[in-house]
Design brief:
Beta-lactamase Inhibitory Protein, Chain:B, domain 1; membrane; 2 domains; four-stranded antiparallel sheet; rod-shaped; transmembrane; 215 residues
């Protein structure tokens, strides 16, 4: 009959091995489990050596759990690596698609605006009498109906009159702006009293130059 086993090292190896085995399934925590498994394996080997001529039940169990934990660690690492790789590819693809979409939107926002003013349309606007609350001026409603909502507008008081200033902006190859100021009459109607434009004459001058060149 073999002498009684010295179980302290075997018990410690079994406990650590069991903890390592449980933690080997969990991402990130399995790195700590690998360290615990190595400790359990060392304790198990020492337990086997100490109990060389005795029973080695606990030491064998602890060593086996440690080995199983190490094997499980590397197995799960391989599985998680594939998952992480697929996730990284999908993330990169989504990021690139989003970036490309944003870039396209930015480019289209710079070139495909709704600015439709021409020099002739601007010249056709009638400025009313500011001292008479814009009487005779082009109405705000007519301009909005023809050219749509402006890019910016704000209300303020000028010379005791309630006024509104609106601006249409084009930020394509050539910057163009049309700024219009309206006064509110006694009926609450907004009438044009001041107009200002930048860049509209460039297109007209270019067309004239092209015509002269062809002639």
């Amino acid at each position: 009959m073999k002498p009684e086993e010295q179980r302290v090292l075997g018990i410690l190896a079994t406990i650590f091995g069991a903890i390592a085995l449980l933690g080997s399934w969990i991402p990130f925590i399995n790195y700590l489990s690998l360290f615990i498994a190595i400790v359990a394996f060392i304790l198990g080997i020492i337990g086997l050596i100490v109990n060389l001529k005795k029973r080695k039940t606990m030491a064998i169990i602890g060593t086996s759990l440690a080995v199983a934990s190490v094997v499980l660690f590397f197995t799960t690492q391989a599985l998680y690596a594939d998952v992480y790789k697929d996730y990284a590819k999908e993330f990169n693809r989504s990021y690139m698609d989003t970036s490309a979409s944003m870039e396209r939107e930015e480019k289209s926002g710079l070139t495909d605006d709704t600015f439709a003013w021409t020099q002739e349309q601007f010249d056709a606007l009638i400025e009313g009498d500011l001292d008479n609350k814009g009487k005779g001026g082009t109405t705000y409603e007519d301009i909005i109906n023809k050219h749509g909502k402006p890019d910016s507008e704000f209300d303020f008081t000028l010379g005791g009159y309630n006024t509104k200033k609106i601006t249409y902006i084009s930020i394509g190859d050539k910057t163009k702006t049309v700024t219009l100021t309206f006064a509110k009459d006694d009926n609450g109607q907004l009438l044009l009293v001041q107009k200002h434009a930048v860049g509209l004459g460039l297109e007209k001058s270019k067309q004239q130059n092209d015509s002269e060149t062809r002639v």
